[in-house]
Amino acid sequence: MSASTRVAAVIGHPVRHSLSPAIFNAAFAAVGLDWAYLAFDVAEGHGGDAVRASRILGIDGLSVTMPHKAAAAAAVDQASDRALALDAVNCVSRRGDRLVGDNTDGPGFVASLRLDGGFDPQGTRCLVLGAGGAARAIVLALAEAGASEIVVVNRTEATAHVAVALAPGIARIGVSGDASHADLVVNATSIGMAHPDDPERARSLPIDAAHLGAGQVVADIVYHPLRTALLDAAASRGATVVEGLGMLVHQAALAFTIWTGEPAPLELMWAAARRNLPT
Ligand code: NAP
């Protein structure tokens, strides 16, 4: 590294578990770019300040994760249509003095479906469990990718309405049983995520596995554990499964290309993500 090394970073809280530094630094090294990627733990309420500081510090690429995506959307000078619709920015690039915000979460998820699961959403019936930030990005991306129907199932109905409004005429609120008729079922809730104090949590299912079976693709965006209880249950009933690490790797690959203009070294990014997964 030298005084001319270009800097990219992630802001989030908590952020010390983030796989992004390993993924991006492996990618910069593989392509021979003099870039370095750091992680900044930024307390809630300071996301906008951190984004604005990136302009002053000359940070060329900023990844934004929980809980700062909405603050980043408000702090950038310009945002993509997708980021505006979601009111959430996960990728900031600096163009001279201007900060441009985008959201690569949904396109990253669809890239993972296509490349890792061999599934093209065009003309398919999809069911999304959850209606939080990640679920909304996925609903929008599935609609952009030509899904014919998107059923949103969420514990809190008011939030489900916000998700459905992103895909008018295509999305509707539904119930878990609707999964039996879906080509694609996505867990976009945090159910099934490992918790250090409660091993039972990783065994929870976001849906009764009886609704899942052969001919379906079941994707989980939880990636800790990599192979969730949902994916195990779906695979044992004959479904094709897509692990959540793909969404993380592909959204990073899209950010890499936005920042550097270079194609992303996907295989190396995958290897770095797998190597650095928490045990
Ligand atoms: P979020 O905005 O907080 O949304 C959480 C969602 O999970 C909401 O729909 C919430 O329902 C639901 N939920 C949580 N606990 C529940 C429970 N006990 N019962 C029923 N529903 C429950 O979070 P997010 O940012 O969307 O993230 C969701 C998950 O995706 C997290 O595990 C996150 O780590 C993961 N993620 C993965 C990637 C990736 O690249 N693979 C990217 C982003 C996020 P309510 O609306 O009813 O509260």
Please give a structural write-up.
The radius of gyration is 18 Å and the shape is globular. α1 (20-31) packs antiparallel against α10, α5 crosses α9 and α9 (245-260) crosses α10. With 279 residues, it is an alpha/beta fold. It contains ten helices and twelve strands. The model has no long low-confidence stretch (mean pLDDT 96). A six-stranded mixed sheet has the order 2-1-3-5-6-4, sandwiched between helices. It has a six-stranded parallel sheet with strand order 9-8-7-10-11-12, sandwiched between helices. The longest helix has 16 residues, at 245-260. β11, α8 (229-236) and β12 form a beta-alpha-beta unit. NADP nicotinamide-adenine-dinucleotide phosphate binds at residues 66, 105, 130-135, 154-156, 159, 188-191, 193, 221-223, 244, 247-248, 251.
How would you write the strand order of the largest sheet? 2-1-3-5-6-4
Report the uncertain regions.
Answer: none
The averaged pLDDT comes out at 96
Helix and strand run: EHEHEHEHEEHEHEHEEEHEHH
Largest beta-sheet details? 6 strands, mixed
How far is the first residue's CA from the last residue's CA? 30 Å
Continuous helix count = 10
Shape: globular
Q: How is this structure best summarized?
A:
The chain is an alpha/beta fold.
Write the layout of secondary structure elements.
Elements: E1 6-12, H1 20-31, E2 35-41, H2 47-57, E3 61-64, H3 69-75, E4 78-79, H4 81-86, E5 91-95, E6 98-102, H5 105-117, E7 125-129, H6 133-144, E8 149-153, H7 157-164, E9 171-173, E10 184-187, E11 217-220, H8 229-236, E12 240-242, H9 245-260, H10 266-275
Parallel strand pairs: 1-2, 1-3, 4-6, 7-8, 7-10, 8-9, 10-11, 11-12
Antiparallel strand pairs: 3-5, 5-6
Helix pairs in contact: 1-10, 2-3, 5-6, 5-9, 9-10
The structure holds NADP nicotinamide-adenine-dinucleotide phosphate.
